[in-house]
Amino acid sequence: MNADHLTDLRSALPFWVTLTNVPLAVAGTLWGGLWLLLLPGYVLVMVSLLDRIVGLDQENADPDTDEARLFWHRAITLIWVPVQFVLLFWIIGHVSANRHLTLLELFVLLYGVGLMTGAAGIVYAHELMHQRNRFERWLGDILLSMVLYSHFRSEHLLVHHHHVATPKDAVTARYNESFYRFFVRVLRECPRSAWKAEIAMLARRGAGPLDRRNPFWRYLGLQLFMIAVALVVGGWYGLALFLVQAFFAVWLLELTNYVEHYGLTRKHLGSGKFEHVKPQHSWNAAHRVSNWFLINLQRHSDHHYKPDRRFPLLQSYGEDEAPQLPYSYPLMTFFAMIPPVWRRMMNPRVRKWRGMYYPEITDWEPYKRGTHPG
User: What membrane topology term does the record carry (predicted)?
Assistant: First the structure.
C-alpha cells in the first residue's frame, strides 16, 4: 500500500465503521425489545462473521508515510470523542426519564453500550494517548473518564510498555491463569502501579505526589465531571446506568488485555533483567474487518515495537515472526470467558510458541509464577 493511497478518503472509510454503533444504540434505546440485540450482536457476532467471509489483511503501508497524509484516518479518532459523549449521556437521560425498559432490557442495553465505549472508546483512547501532541492526549483522557478508568493511561504508558511479558506487568496474563483471576488481580494491582509510576516520575523532577503536574489530578477532575453529567441528565438512576456501562467497558478492555499477551514471556537474562520486547511477545490477528473496527489493534506486535506509530501504519507480521491467534480479538474475548475452552485452545499454542522461540528453556515454573531472582 503506497502513501498516495493512504491519503484517499476511500482507504480510511472502512475504519469509520465504528459510527455504525450510533444508529444501533439509538434504535435499542428508543424501542427496546429485540432492537436491543443489534448493538451487542453487531460488535460480537457480525464483525466475527464478516471476518470469516472477508478474510485476512496482511498488506502493509509504508511506515515512513508523513503524518500529514493521514488526515482521514486520524479524523475518526477525533470525531468519536464528541459523538460518544453525546450518545452516552443522551441514552442515560432518555432511559432515566422514561423508565420504559425492563431490568433484562436494561442489562442488554448497558452491555451493548459498554461494548461500544470499550471496543470503540477505549481503543480510540489508546490510540490518542500514545500520540505526542497534547490535544490528542487530552481527548484520550476524556474517553477514559467516560468509563472511570483514567489511570489506564499511566499504567499502560509507564508500566505495561516497559514491563510487558514479565512478572512486573500485571496485564500480561500468566499461563493457565483464568480470565476471572486475572481480572480481579488487574483491578487490584494496576491503579497502584500507575500511581507509583507517576510518583516516581515526579520524584525524578524533584516534585512530590501532590504536585499539579501529577496527571491523577486531571483524571480525578474529568471523572468527577462525567459523574456530575450523569447525575444532571439522569439523577441517581442515571448515575447507576453510567456506572454499569463503565463496568462492562472495563470488562471488555481487560478481556482484550488478557488475550493480547496470554502466556507469553520475555527471556530472563539474570539479575532481574529480561530481553528486549520482540514481535514474538504479542498475540496478533490479521482479520480484516475486526482490524477496521479496532483500528488495527490486532497488529499488536508492531504497536509494541513502535508505540507512537499511527494505526494505519502498523505492520502485519507473518506466522514465522510473531504468534497468530486462530480467530480475531472479538471472538477470542468470548472464548476467554470460558476457561476450559480457552485453555484447550491456547495452552497448546503457548507450548508450541515456547518450543519455537525458547527451546533452551526447560523450566517454565519461574515464568509462570514470577519467581525469578533479583
Answer: Multi-pass membrane protein
Domains: count for the chain: 1
> Under a CB-based contact definition with an 8 Å cutoff, are residues 261 and 173 in contact?
yes
pTM as predicted: 0.95
Average pLDDT in the 230-258 region? 98
Find out whether 241 and 234 touch, Cβ atoms under 8 Å. yes
Give the up-direction half-sphere exposure of residue 81: CA atoms within 13 A in the CB hemisphere. 21
270's enclosing H/E stretch is: strand 268-270
DSSP conformation letters of 305-340: HSTTS-GGGPPP--TTTS-B-SS-HHHHHHHHTSHH
Q: Could you read off the pLDDT of 289-302 as tens digits, one per residue?
A: 999 999 999 999 99
The whole-angstrom separation of Cα 60 and Cα 346 is 27
Find where cell 448497558 sits.
110
Burial of 244: CB neighbours in 10 Å, binned 0-12, 13-18, 19+: middle
Domain that holds residue 166: 3-369
* Per-residue pLDDT tens over the stretch 179-194: 999 999 999 999 999 9
Instruction: Judge contact between 253 and 336, C-beta under 8 A.
Output: no
Distance between CA atoms of residues 335 and 46, nearest Å: 16
Q: Is residue 168, in this structure, part of any structural domain at all? A: yes
